[in-house]
Design brief:
alpha/beta, six-stranded mixed beta sheet, 28% helix, 19% strand
Length: 753
């Protein structure tokens, strides 16, 4: 049998070589020809059936190429934090492969919290290398939906509440991934800001908020990052579903932004053939048609952009103009991915990838509070450490929805702490509380069984007793990837911590004053115990290197430099979407049972308009628990007085602000200089300040660096809905520079002519 296979291979090679010598290479296969010419040639050779076949899925995660012409199929993959495990052809369950484990990278909240654009590129490059090695052509991420409410179960997959920060962090991520010949698919375009009713809601938002808050990250992704694909959302806008939306896809994306890439539907987001044809969708995945009634074999042929589309063309009810545009976009994508002979091979699980995961974790961790220098842990004084809390031992790479991963390994917080501190101090663990004992998603199993039948009282008493006997206590709690916490498809039920953790923390605070609370989450949480806890750390979901990154920060090996990418309100009612807007939907419609299915969508009105996050808190002077941009360090920094290179600028001018940042402490560290702009007199309501520039500055003890941030008219503009354009009104402005939205260190006034 082996000899036969080799013999056939030799025949094939000989045939290929001889035909290459006797025939001219077709234009579409000729690398020396311009891509535009190759695409036109390929398109001219395709049959109508072959074109339509390219527009829809052929399995859960792949779509057809054109075998007759040697155009390969496309293979997509979740997710934004690591390449998802292989699933069966037609099902979500595992395919049973043994070689599909990868490095799990920190969630995008953690990446955004680094405020480090270079780190974002490193992250994207490493992730793209793993996707390329696994022979994936489209990575379904990153997510850039704006953080509107802390109850959104999918916030951990996004980059926070500010469109400027998100835009600046997503572009290098895209470029890093695509440097491997793997396309990103920036999602979910647009207005998918909650999971509850995501399939059955119609979002109502004013044009100004749409263009100032919710669209800029997507615009940056396609106009600056050149993301080769973009994924439509589930929700409705202007009464049309986002994945087949005339205004979002044709008017804005492909019209105003001149997008030449591919629009991919979210899985199951399409529900109308004619709208899908005309309203900008290019590639349909995961649709819930009744195609199975025609037999499993034909299910994919019954997608909205499959046989129904073909029938409309053959009956003369629609033309082929849209079809050729869609296929042209897909062919352009193919020449960047599947037919790109120069794409690298990629690699998986390398030491470099582990290092990237650990470094992103270290830089993303945010030190929220550090009273009396409780952290870092001083091993000259601490000889016994109590680690308490389920999240210290619970794997977080499995679960949460489409970002669930089959990681090669996951270093748990307890393991990381033991590895770092165990040789110099005794480290003991107590459960403290029982939350979610499970650990399985779509057949990926963590291998953990965290079931504990003891009473809550017994478990708490054990933890308090250990805390009393220890020199230092670390509580590791927060949220997890279970439903109604940080998980796709469902939102959180409340702002508070689950599983009675507030009582556990309060009891531990009384038992030992040398106490640090570590929160594992992708969302803000209420902290009724905040005054009694001297040190609080937000550690996010940090992936494979979670425990090592956390231990490094707790020990002071890495000086924390993360800054919050969203505001922590004191209580849920302080959040503008809950005070002014509709969540989870219109109350009268909720009472009437709206939102139960797609025929009866529920309306969600964003009455808060542009006043989201710090824009709301700072403008209304509502003190947050922790502000946007907040994050402490183990050293101290001093900002010098800012100066502008001019005091008056014209509409086409730029202005540069220069200031110094000095490390006045005894440890090397990094500070994030944040520049906000305030319009001192406007014809329309504007936030007190808006982020328009930032730089992360690394400094040794005593070192001082000069920082320059340049802005132009765009940083001064608001969106005028009546004119449908950006307007910078002449008048006085102020540049506010500091290290958090509520901690301004220096300011400069200037005038726009």
């Amino acid at each position: 049998m082996l000899k036969k296979i080799v013999f056939l291979s030799l025949i094939t090679l000989t045939y290929t070589a001889s035909t290459a010598q006797t025939k001219t290479t077709p234009i579409y296969l000729d690398d020396s020809k311009p891509v535009e010419q190759r695409v036109k040639d390929a398109l001219s050779r395709m049959t109508l059936e072959e074109k339509v076949a390219m527009l829809h899925a052929q399995s859960k995660f792949s779509s057809a190429g054109v075998p007759r012409l040697g155009i390969p199929e496309f293979w997509t993959t979740d997710g934004p934090h690591g390449v998802r495990a292989e699933v069966k052809w037609d099902e979500w369950d595992q395919a049973g492969w043994t070689n599909d484990s990868i490095i799990a990278y920190p969630a995008l909240t953690a990446l955004s919290a680094t405020w480090n654009k270079k780190m974002s590129w490193n992250y994207g490059k490493a992730l793209g290398e793993e996707a390329r090695y696994r022979k994936k052509d489209i990575l379904l991420g990153p997510g850039v939906n704006i953080y509107r409410t802390p109850l959104n179960g999918r916030n951990f997959e996004y980059m926070g509440e500010d469109p400027f920060l998100t835009s600046k962090m997503v572009v290098p991520y895209i470029q890093g991934v695509q440097s491997n010949g793997v396309a990103t698919s920036v999602k979910h375009y647009a207005l998918n800001n909650q999971e509850m009713f995501r399939h059955t809601s119609n979002v109502k938002v004013d044009d100004r908020a749409l263009h100032e808050l919710y669209l800029p990250p997507f615009k940056a992704a396609v106009t600056e990052g050149d993301s080769w694909t973009i994924m439509g959302a589930y929700d409705m806008y202007k009464g049309q579903y986002a994945s087949q939306n005339q205004y979002l896809l044709n008017d804005i994306l492909k019209g105003e932004w001149n997008y030449k890439g591919v629009v991919v539907s979210d899985w199951g987001a399409v529900n109308n053939t004619e709208q899908a044809i005309k309203n900008g969708l290019d590639l349909e995945f995961g649709s819930w048609t009744n195609g199975l009634s025609a037999g499993t074999k034909n299910a994919y042929d019954n997608y909205y952009l499959a046989q129904p589309y073909l029938n409309l063309i053959k009956s003369g009810k629609v033309g082929t103009k849209e079809l050729d545009d869609k296929v042209t976009r897909l062919l352009n994508l193919a020449y960047k991915t599947t037919m790109n002979k120069n794409k690298p091979l990629g690699n998986v699980g390398s030491e470099d990838h582990k290092a990237v995961a650990k470094q992103v974790g270290e830089e993303g961790i945010v030190l929220l509070k550090n009273q009396s220098n409780t952290l870092p842990i001083d091993l000259n004084k601490v000889k016994s450490i109590a680690v308490i809390g389920e999240n210290a031992i619970k794997m977080m790479t499995v679960g949460g929805g489409s970002s669930s991963l089959k990681a090669k390994y996951e270093t748990l917080p307890l393991d990381g702490i033991k590895s770092r501190f165990g040789k110099q101090a005794e480290v003991k663990f107590a459960r403290g509380y029982v939350g979610d004992p499970g650990g399985e998603y779509n057949g990926v199993k963590s291998g953990q069984d965290l079931k504990d039948d003891r009473s809550a009282e017994v478990i708490l008493n054990e933890a308090v007793e250990l805390a009393t006997k220890s020199d230092f206590v670390i509580f590791v709690g927060g949220l997890n990837k279970a439903d109604h916490q940080d998980a796709e498809g469902v939102d959180r039920k409340s702002y508070g911590l689950p599983y009675n953790q507030d009582n556990v923390i309060a009891a531990l605070a009384k038992a030992n004053k040398n106490f640090a609370v570590v929160l594992v989450s992708g969302n803000a949480v209420a902290m009724p115990w905040i005054k009694d806890v001297p040190a609080i750390v937000e550690s996010w979901y940090l992936g494979s290197e979670a425990g090592n990154s956390l231990a490094s920060v707790l020990a002071g090996d890495a000086n924390p430099s993360g800054k919050l990418p969203f505001t922590f309100p004191v209580k849920l009612e302080d959040n503008s979407a809950h005070q002014l807007g509709e969540y989870p939907g219109n109350k009268e419609e909720l009472a009437a049972g709206k939102g139960a299915d797609q025929k009866n969508p529920i309306n969600i009105t964003y009455n808060e308009s542009i006043f989201v996050g710090y824009r709301w808190h700072d403008t209304k002077k509502i003190k947050p628990l922790f502000s946007f941009g907040h994050g402490l360090s183990y050293t101290t920094f001093e900002f010098g007085k800012a100066k502008a290179d001019k005091t008056t600028i014209g509409q086409d001018d730029k202005i540069t602000f220069t200031f110094t940042v000095k490390n006045t402490g005894k440890k090397a560290g990094a500070e994030v200089a944040q520049l906000y702009i305030s319009d001192l007199k406007s014809s329309l309501p504007r936030p007190t300040k808006e982020l328009k520039g930032f730089e992360k500055v690394f400094l040794n003890p005593g070192e001082e660096k000069e920082v320059s941030i340049t802005i132009d008219k765009a940083a001064l503009s608001f969106f005028d809905a009546d004119k449908h354009s950006w307007v910078a009104e002449p008048g006085d402005f102020e540049a506010l520079i500091g290290n958090a939205s509520d901690n301004i260190k220096t300011r400069v006034k200037f005038t726009l002519k």
